[in-house]
Amino acid sequence: LKIVEGPMAPVIEDAAFLKQAADLLPPLPWDEESWGEWSAAIKQATGRKGRELFHPLRLALTGREQGPEMKLLLPLIGPKRVRERLLPQELVASRRKPGPSDRRGQPFPRSGSRLSPG
Predict the structure, then answer these.
(1) What pTM was estimated for this model as a whole?
(2) What is the mean pLDDT of residues 80-85?
(3) d(C-alpha 10, C-alpha 7), whole Å
C-alpha cells in the first residue's frame, strides 16, 4: 500500500495541531487500539472532536480525504513514518546541515572555488 510505505506528500492543514498530536503519540507497540488511545488523548488536550480532530490527522498521515480505517493504518505506517508525516518541516530542518563558517558566521568558500580579490 502506497499509503503505508510509499513516498507521499502529507497535507498539512494546521502544523501547530499536528505538532501537539505528535507529542501525544501512544507508547509502542502499536496495535488496533492505539488509534483510539491516541485520538482520545488529542481530544482531551485540544478540545477538538469529530471532523476537526480526525480530518487533519488523516490528511497528514495518508494525504487523502478518505481511505481505510485509521486504527488499521496507524500500526502499519509505524512510528517513524507517522512522525515524519506529522512534522515534515522538522524533518527538512534536521536534514539541513550547516556548512563550516568562520567566527563571524560567514561560510568558508567551498573547495575548488576561487576567491576574488577584494
Answers:
(1) 0.75
(2) 95
(3) 9
